[in-house]
Design goal:
This protein has 440 residues and is of the alpha/beta class. It is built from 13 helices and 18 strands.
Amino acid sequence: MAIIFHNARLVNPAQNLEQEGSIRVSDSGVIDVITFGGKTIAPDDNDRVIDMSGKVISSGLFDMHCHFREPGQEYKETLETGSRAAIAGGFTGVAVMPNTKPVIDSPLGAAFIRHTAKDLPVDIEIVAAMTEGSAGEKLSPYGKLCSYGIQAISDDGTAVQSSRMMRLVFEYAASFELLVVQHCEDTSLSSGGIMNEGRFSGLLGLKGIPDVAETITLARDLNLMDYLQQHKLNPPVGSPKYHVAHISTKGALDLVRRAKTKGMQVTCEITPHHFTLTEKELYEAEDKGNYIMKPPLCSEENRNALLEALADGTIDAIACDHAPHARHEKECPPDQASFGIIGLETSVGLTFSELVHTGIISLYRAIELLSSNPRKIMGLSPVLFEPGSPANFTFIDPDETWTFSDENIRSKSRNTPFINRTMKGRALGIYHNGVLHGLE
């Protein structure tokens, strides 16, 4: 049965599109007709017509930083349960990070993910490990991984600490045009740290993680990139492409700005919890485990810098760093809690509540950060709103006020500080791979 989505606000930054319109999708999941400016589409006898007045149809959202825990930690999340959470959050695709058990550092691991995910309702892209076992000592086989469609590498959860090894990562990755995704953290400074180093860590008596743990690693990487680009000591194979995961400090943002000014291929992402919360919320919380994450919740000064960078375009993407953990791994003393929270199901709500409705960014910019930019950074094909293209949509009510409750959660885990938080702006569902999810 074909479906006509009538009178929607169509937003697709990949085509510089933001206009009222209607779309007819055939029963095979392909866009048949698209009209603009209030022109209606005459339905056939068996067509289903859905009135989208006041609602948004955006290019399908894509989150480029998720942990679905399979293989090895299926008690926290699986590819299937993570996909359910993605749909609930309005995402038609995600990229999963390699810090599973075992680490995804070989063709065998990549093949397992591809096989397990082939029938899932959302697209699963794989970020493979930079180094074997993410141990920072020996490069993963990038060439073989590329044959399984790998387009990005990361030792997420840790950073390559050796400058020599990081140089090799850049040189080898550039030869395969792989995106290098770095979790910027100097572990000699952060080891044992629980939260941001400052007044609140002192008041709680918890070991802190200083801002410079992020900026030192980032500065080293950018200096290496610049050196390799300027000197071209090896045969020319292209410049490295570098992406800063979950950026959280003013110092790191300043480094990214300077790198972009120099024409370096550098991008960065921010998480909703970093633009929403600060270290003060952790200090005041009773359930501190759900406020423990890496990088840690930052100071108010750094949060303000992040908001400014979202507004001025320095930050390229929003990625939730969806990190499920079991209850016992969070309901414990803070210095024993696992790092990270789930985020797919609250990403749209927090983005609209904290950024769009406060006037920091526009709705168009929000979709750019959540959809077209992550796909572009990952080297994926853009979603197009044109006849003959497969329908890949996210449906959003920008003005719906709703409360995120435990009953809402589709993830296998419940580790989030946002239960019972009221937000304005909600994902209503997706249309992808010929199937409509939501809009009942």
